Input
Amino acid sequence: MPDIHIKNTRIYYNNSLQPAEIIIENDKIKKIGKDFRVSSVDMVIDAGGALTLPAGIDVHVHFREPGMTLKENWYTGSCSAAAGGIATVIDQPNTIPPTTDRRSFEQKLKFARGKSIVDFGINGGVTENIEKLKELWRLGVMAFGEIFMAESTGGLNINEETFEEALAEIKRLGALATIHAEDEKNAP
Output
């Protein structure tokens, strides 16, 4: 039996908006079509002709937990994400402490698991911790960065030599580096 039957909606298909109905079973879209005859369903939603879109993914959030929760935390940030149609977030490492080793990663993961109402990932920070990047990758960080070449929250800025070493290690791991777009040394 379907969990949800969304009627009277529109979807973007074949380069145009099309009328549609959607059947959801076990939290997954099972069918998309035009006129389903469903004998039993947990919930029927009449979309009133509104557009149905897949949820978004925000790969750059700052939930600031641990250390700066007066700005935001995993619960408030994930509620805001969900309210805006975002179902997955990737949190950045510049918290206090920054997410640069096993202990800080596991601490942030504990907060996220206990408070987030959306799916999530966590990025690992890059400092003088090149020897810890492999462990962070095995623990499940989504990417490394934002990598800072200028002063930032959490003191994550690095010099050119460390930057080059980090990129070489990240490449060896088959991981992704995300780089903040400024260089304090070459600023005007």
Observations:
- The two ends are 64 Å apart (CA to CA).
